[in-house]
Protein backbone atom coordinates (compact mmCIF):
# COMPACT_ATOMS: atom_id res chain seq x y z
CA UNK A 1 0.00 0.00 0.00
CA UNK A 2 1.23 3.49 -0.87
CA UNK A 3 0.87 5.54 2.31
CA UNK A 4 1.32 9.32 2.62
CA UNK A 5 2.23 10.53 6.10
CA UNK A 6 -0.08 13.25 7.42
CA UNK A 7 1.54 15.43 10.08
CA UNK A 8 -0.45 18.57 9.42
CA UNK A 9 1.58 19.79 6.45
CA UNK A 10 0.05 21.43 3.43
CA UNK A 11 0.65 19.63 0.13
CA UNK A 12 -0.71 16.17 0.91
CA UNK A 13 -3.66 16.22 -1.47
CA UNK A 14 -1.56 17.35 -4.46
CA UNK A 15 0.84 14.43 -3.85
CA UNK A 16 -2.07 12.02 -3.50
CA UNK A 17 -3.65 13.28 -6.74
CA UNK A 18 -0.36 12.93 -8.61
CA UNK A 19 -0.13 9.24 -7.70
CA UNK A 20 -3.80 8.75 -8.55
CA UNK A 21 -3.12 10.10 -12.05
CA UNK A 22 -0.57 7.30 -12.39
CA UNK A 23 -3.20 4.74 -11.41
CA UNK A 24 -1.94 4.23 -7.87
CA UNK A 25 -4.37 5.05 -5.04
CA UNK A 26 -2.72 6.43 -1.93
CA UNK A 27 -3.81 6.49 1.70
CA UNK A 28 -3.25 9.75 3.61
CA UNK A 29 -3.01 8.99 7.32
CA UNK A 30 -1.60 10.10 10.66
CA UNK A 31 -2.27 6.70 12.23
CA UNK A 32 1.07 5.27 13.46
CA UNK A 33 -0.17 1.72 12.90
CA UNK A 34 -1.08 2.37 9.28
CA UNK A 35 2.30 4.03 8.76
CA UNK A 36 4.03 1.03 10.34
CA UNK A 37 2.18 -1.31 7.98
CA UNK A 38 2.96 0.67 4.81
CA UNK A 39 4.56 -1.06 1.84
CA UNK A 40 5.63 2.23 0.27
CA UNK A 41 5.87 5.36 2.44
CA UNK A 42 5.78 8.97 1.23
CA UNK A 43 6.79 11.83 3.53
CA UNK A 44 5.94 15.17 1.90
CA UNK A 45 5.69 18.55 3.57
CA UNK A 46 6.27 22.27 3.70
CA UNK A 47 6.89 24.58 6.65
CA UNK A 48 9.44 24.79 9.46
CA UNK A 49 11.79 21.95 10.44
CA UNK A 50 11.22 22.20 14.19
CA UNK A 51 7.44 22.39 13.87
CA UNK A 52 7.42 19.37 11.57
CA UNK A 53 9.45 17.26 13.99
CA UNK A 54 7.19 18.27 16.88
CA UNK A 55 4.13 17.21 14.88
CA UNK A 56 5.69 13.87 13.92
CA UNK A 57 6.67 13.22 17.52
CA UNK A 58 3.32 14.33 18.96
CA UNK A 59 1.43 12.02 16.61
CA UNK A 60 3.66 9.03 17.39
CA UNK A 61 5.01 8.86 13.84
CA UNK A 62 8.75 9.13 14.38
CA UNK A 63 9.45 5.51 15.30
CA UNK A 64 7.22 3.97 12.55
CA UNK A 65 9.04 6.09 9.96
CA UNK A 66 12.46 5.15 11.34
CA UNK A 67 11.50 1.46 11.44
CA UNK A 68 10.34 1.64 7.82
CA UNK A 69 13.70 3.14 6.82
CA UNK A 70 15.75 0.69 8.89
CA UNK A 71 14.01 -2.14 7.04
CA UNK A 72 14.92 -0.50 3.69
CA UNK A 73 11.30 -0.47 2.59
CA UNK A 74 10.48 1.92 -0.28
CA UNK A 75 10.42 5.55 0.85
CA UNK A 76 9.94 8.85 -0.99
CA UNK A 77 10.60 12.16 0.75
CA UNK A 78 9.49 15.47 -0.78
CA UNK A 79 10.78 18.93 0.22
CA UNK A 80 10.50 18.95 4.04
CA UNK A 81 10.39 15.17 3.74
CA UNK A 82 14.00 15.31 2.55
CA UNK A 83 15.16 17.82 5.16
CA UNK A 84 13.75 15.85 8.10
CA UNK A 85 15.98 12.89 7.20
CA UNK A 86 19.04 14.79 8.45
CA UNK A 87 20.46 15.06 11.95
CA UNK A 88 19.85 18.76 12.53
CA UNK A 89 17.71 21.60 11.21
CA UNK A 90 18.97 25.15 11.80
CA UNK A 91 15.75 27.07 11.30
CA UNK A 92 14.99 29.12 14.41
CA UNK A 93 17.63 27.35 16.49
CA UNK A 94 18.90 23.77 16.43
CA UNK A 95 16.34 21.00 16.06
CA UNK A 96 16.98 17.26 15.98
CA UNK A 97 15.75 15.49 12.85
CA UNK A 98 15.20 11.83 12.07
CA UNK A 99 18.96 11.27 11.86
CA UNK A 100 18.89 9.00 8.83
CA UNK A 101 21.70 10.98 7.18
CA UNK A 102 24.62 12.80 8.76
CA UNK A 103 24.53 16.53 8.17
CA UNK A 104 22.33 19.55 8.71
CA UNK A 105 19.82 21.77 6.94
CA UNK A 106 20.84 25.43 6.67
CA UNK A 107 19.38 28.62 5.19
CA UNK A 108 20.53 29.75 1.77
CA UNK A 109 23.23 32.42 1.92
CA UNK A 110 22.86 34.16 -1.43
CA UNK A 111 23.66 37.61 -2.75
CA UNK A 112 21.31 39.90 -4.74
CA UNK A 113 19.65 39.64 -7.15
CA UNK A 114 18.91 36.14 -5.81
CA UNK A 115 16.20 36.00 -3.17
CA UNK A 116 15.22 33.62 -0.39
CA UNK A 117 13.09 31.56 -0.63
CA UNK A 118 14.33 29.81 -3.73
CA UNK A 119 11.04 29.60 -5.60
CA UNK A 120 10.24 28.43 -9.11
CA UNK A 121 11.74 26.22 -11.79
CA UNK A 122 15.39 25.26 -11.76
CA UNK A 123 17.67 22.75 -13.43
CA UNK A 124 18.52 19.50 -11.66
CA UNK A 125 21.38 17.22 -12.62
CA UNK A 126 21.05 13.59 -11.54
CA UNK A 127 24.20 11.78 -10.41
CA UNK A 128 25.42 8.73 -8.53
CA UNK A 129 22.62 6.71 -6.97
CA UNK A 130 20.08 9.06 -8.53
CA UNK A 131 20.69 7.28 -11.82
CA UNK A 132 19.43 4.08 -10.22
CA UNK A 133 16.03 5.74 -9.88
CA UNK A 134 15.67 7.75 -13.06
CA UNK A 135 17.55 7.62 -16.34
CA UNK A 136 18.02 11.34 -16.92
CA UNK A 137 21.38 11.96 -18.58
CA UNK A 138 20.13 15.39 -19.67
CA UNK A 139 19.43 17.85 -16.80
CA UNK A 140 15.71 18.28 -16.14
CA UNK A 141 13.66 21.14 -14.73
CA UNK A 142 11.72 20.81 -11.47
CA UNK A 143 9.76 23.16 -9.23
CA UNK A 144 11.25 24.35 -5.91
CA UNK A 145 9.89 26.30 -2.92
CA UNK A 146 12.33 26.42 0.01
CA UNK A 147 14.58 28.66 2.07
CA UNK A 148 16.80 25.92 3.53
CA UNK A 149 18.88 23.18 1.92
CA UNK A 150 20.45 19.98 3.21
CA UNK A 151 24.22 19.73 3.66
CA UNK A 152 25.05 15.99 3.72
CA UNK A 153 28.36 15.02 5.29
CA UNK A 154 28.54 11.97 3.04
CA UNK A 155 28.73 13.06 -0.61
CA UNK A 156 27.83 9.56 -1.74
CA UNK A 157 24.18 10.02 -0.71
CA UNK A 158 23.72 13.02 -3.01
CA UNK A 159 21.55 11.85 -5.91
CA UNK A 160 21.08 15.19 -7.67
CA UNK A 161 22.34 18.75 -7.50
CA UNK A 162 20.99 22.16 -8.41
CA UNK A 163 22.52 25.65 -8.47
CA UNK A 164 21.22 28.69 -6.59
CA UNK A 165 24.08 31.00 -5.75
CA UNK A 166 26.18 27.84 -5.73
CA UNK A 167 25.48 24.11 -5.94
CA UNK A 168 23.22 22.50 -3.37
CA UNK A 169 21.79 19.03 -2.72
CA UNK A 170 18.55 18.58 -4.68
CA UNK A 171 18.02 14.87 -3.91
CA UNK A 172 19.42 12.06 -1.79
CA UNK A 173 19.23 8.31 -2.26
CA UNK A 174 20.26 5.16 -0.43
CA UNK A 175 18.91 1.67 -0.92
CA UNK A 176 15.18 2.01 -1.58
CA UNK A 177 15.07 5.55 -0.19
CA UNK A 178 14.73 8.53 -2.51
CA UNK A 179 14.09 12.09 -1.35
CA UNK A 180 13.89 15.30 -3.36
CA UNK A 181 14.10 18.95 -2.32
CA UNK A 182 11.91 19.90 -5.27
CA UNK A 183 8.23 19.07 -5.66
CA UNK A 184 7.71 16.36 -8.32
CA UNK A 185 3.93 16.67 -7.93
CA UNK A 186 4.24 20.30 -9.14
CA UNK A 187 6.87 19.65 -11.80
CA UNK A 188 4.64 18.64 -14.72
CA UNK A 189 5.99 15.92 -17.03
CA UNK A 190 9.42 15.63 -15.42
CA UNK A 191 7.90 15.28 -11.98
CA UNK A 192 5.34 12.71 -13.06
CA UNK A 193 8.12 10.73 -14.74
CA UNK A 194 10.00 10.65 -11.44
CA UNK A 195 6.93 9.49 -9.48
CA UNK A 196 6.33 6.82 -12.09
CA UNK A 197 9.96 5.72 -11.81
CA UNK A 198 9.54 5.43 -8.03
CA UNK A 199 6.49 3.20 -8.51
CA UNK A 200 8.25 1.11 -11.16
CA UNK A 201 11.42 0.67 -9.11
CA UNK A 202 9.39 -0.49 -6.08
CA UNK A 203 6.87 -2.64 -7.91
CA UNK A 204 7.97 -5.73 -5.96
CA UNK A 205 6.00 -4.46 -2.94
CA UNK A 206 2.96 -3.50 -4.99
CA UNK A 207 -0.32 -4.75 -3.53
CA UNK A 208 -2.77 -1.86 -3.52
CA UNK A 209 -1.86 -0.15 -6.78
CA UNK A 210 -3.86 -0.83 -9.91
CA UNK A 211 -1.54 0.76 -12.46
The gyration radius over C-alpha positions equals 16 Å
How many beta-strand segments? Answer: 13
Specify the CATH architecture: 3-Layer(aba) Sandwich
Instruction: Indicate the percent of residues in helices.
Output: 25-40%
- Which regions contain 5 or more consecutive residues with pLDDT less than 50? none
Number of domains: 1
SSE order in H/E notation? Answer: EHEHEHHEHEEEEHEEEEEH
Largest sheet: 9 strands, mixed
Write out the CATH superfamily name: Class I glutamine amidotransferase (GATase) domain
End-to-end separation? 13 Å
* Fraction of residues in β-strands: 25-35%
Shape: globular
**What is the level 1 CATH name?**
Alpha Beta
**CATH topology-level fold name:** Rossmann fold
The overall pLDDT average reads: 93
**Number of discrete helical segments:** 7
Structural class by secondary-structure content: alpha/beta
| Major sheet strand order | 2-1-3-4-13-12-11-8-9
Question: How would you describe the overall organization of this protein?
Answer:
- This protein is 27% helix and 32% strand.
- It has one domain (2-205): Rossmann fold, CATH 3.40.50.
- It has helices spanning 12-21, 32-36, 49-58, 62-70, 80-83, 130-133, 188-201, and strands at residues 2-5, 26-29, 40-43, 75-78, 86-89, 95-96, 101-107, 118-126, 140-146, 148-152, 158-163, 167-174, 177-180.
- The strands form 2 sheets. The chain has a 9-stranded mixed beta sheet, with helices on both faces. A 4-stranded mixed beta sheet has the order 6-5-7-10, with helices on one face.
- The model has no long low-confidence stretch (mean pLDDT 93).
